[in-house]
Amino acid sequence: MQRILNIETAKKLNKKVKVCGWVNSRRDHGGIVFLDLRDRSGIVQVVCPSKLAKDIKDEYVLAVEGKVNKRPADMINPKLETGKIEIQVSKIEILAKAASLPFDLRNQELKVSLPTLLDYRPITLRHPKIKAIFRVQEKIIESFRKNMKDLGFFEFQAPTIVPVATEGGAEVFRIDYFDYDAYLAQSPQLYKQILVGVFERVFTVTRAYRAEPSVTTRHLCEYISLDVEMGFIDSWEDLMDICQILIYNIFSDLKKNCKKELKIFGQSIPSLGIPIPRLKLREAQEIIFERTGRDNRREADLTPEDEKEICQWAKEKKNTELVFITHFPSKKRPFYTYPDPEDPEYTLSFDLLYKGMEIVTGGQRIHEYEKLLKNIKKFGGKVKDFKFYLQTFKYGMPPEGGFALGAERITKQVLGLKNLREASFFPRDMARIDQRLSTLKPKNPPSPRLRRARKKND
RNA sequence: GGACCCGUAGUGUAGUCCGGUUUAACACGUCUCCCUGUCACGGAGAAGAUCGUCGGUUCAAAUCCGAUCGGGUCCGCCA
């Protein structure tokens, strides 16, 4: 018999059906046992005589055959999409048994600490509220892709093994690449710029790696970067225009397609259509000073506390929790960032804050070859390290710029999650790659290169 | 790298401040039994923790002190 999805049983009244799934819960009433069967479409109640359901426990994987019956009016469960029907079982096949779970998966809230949540990731992901996080994230990425394509952008796949550190030294993962050093990419920056020289408008959904020795609620060592870069901009503000369209379209898609998920988290989508305020860093700091008396007016960036404050300001005064902060100091931005012609101490760059956290960063890039050479040197880089990349500029590059969205960060802010790691399927941080590193052997064996070097010294 | 906080059954917590009726409590889960209308089913019972580890103070330590290991939060840095 052909399996159908749980959700489809609602349309098969009085028909014989076969459904498959996991036992979400078992309610034993002696002579009769109710099983909630969960599959990818949802949950359906299965009614079993006790002799058929005797050995069945939570998370067992079953194939169930039975007749779809209408429930009596007073037995309807409005919480279930299949709540008006149930399956009167005639045959149960156990496809797989399951050990008893270390925590209660059927509670509406999964009450576990963060380390437990991640230690048991393969099964905590089965919880509806955890699943919802990734449904939302999938929609964000899908919407990003669709919107960029609609705007005429070309999708490419960025390499993640790179020969030089893109934007600075310390926070990269070095890898053993045959007999040479290579690095995991901190961002697809150089490659998306190279491809602007080919396709004008490009984007990628890629992974970025940061070896920052920081354990916070908003950092991952591996994260999903939604990267955009476009040529032939008239003004660097075009980038914020595109960014705003993109963000609003993503939000509008979430509003349409993730009603259930947003409701689970008690979150709503911000009002769209309102222009996102654009404040120079110094203006934002002035506002913060006026509002709180905190004088950070000479600092090169906003503190996390300031980021929350300025979003609060935007909410009160501009009716939005989104705000662009622009004109960061040159020394705070990478070498390729375009200096502000009016004041070269600052750059044509921006961050987009949402509910008190940076979710996007971007800006205009230096597209003039000579100027870029000068800036690489100024930032202490070696021109020869960037020779490959520099071809693009040597042989003609239009005025251009771009930005990048952190997929986990948007997910976290949209759903009001406490820790960014909750928004990553398998988060990597200083202390964890799937398992806690502290549970593994303390040190990796030395690499062949290291062993050779040591031998030489002996 | 800096600051602060936490560690008690499988999970989540109470008890720690102010050491002693604590045989370490509660909820969920687990196991046994009862129950044909539950949907976070209900009822009766049981098992499960030498209170992270080591050391110290004390007549007495989950409780106070120190070290150590594990974890979290904030800052710096950033998507």
Give structural notes.
By secondary structure, the protein is an alpha+beta fold. Helix content is 30%, strand content 28%. The N and C termini lie far apart (71 Å). Residues 443-458 have low confidence and may be disordered. It binds one RNA strand of 79 nucleotides through strand 1, strand 2, strand 3, helix 2 and strand 11.
Task: Spell out the blueprint of helices and strands.
Blueprint: E1 16-28, E2 32-39, E3 42-49, H1 50-53, E4 61-70, E5 85-96, H2 114-119, H3 121-124, H4 128-150, E6 154-155, E7 161-162, E8 174-177, E9 180-184, H5 189-199, E10 201-209, E11 222-231, H6 237-257, H7 259-264, E12 278-280, H8 281-292, H9 304-318, E13 322-326, E14 339-340, E15 343-347, E16 349-354, E17 357-365, H10 369-378, H11 387-394, E18 400-406, H12 407-415, E19 428-429, E20 432-433, E21 435-436, H13 448-457
Parallel strand pairs: 3-5, 6-10, 12-13
Antiparallel strand pairs: 1-2, 1-4, 2-3, 4-5, 7-9, 8-9, 10-11, 11-18, 13-16, 14-15, 16-17, 17-18, 19-20, 20-21
Helix pairs in contact: 4-6, 4-12, 5-11, 8-9
The protein binds one RNA strand of 79 nucleotides through strand 1, strand 2, strand 3, helix 2 and strand 11.
Net shape = elongated
- Assess the beta-strand content as a share of residues: 25-35%
Number of helices: 13
What class do helices, strands and sheet pairing give?
A: alpha+beta
How confident is the prediction overall: mean pLDDT?
A: 92
Rg for CA atoms = 27 Å
Our measurement of the CA-to-CA distance between the termini, rounded to an integer number of angstroms, reads 71 Å
Helix content: 25-40%
Number of strands: 21
Low-pLDDT segments: 443-458
Placed side by side, the strands forming the largest sheet appear as 6-10-11-18-17-16-13-12
Tell me the quaternary state: single chain
Main sheet: strands, sense, barrel: 8 strands, mixed
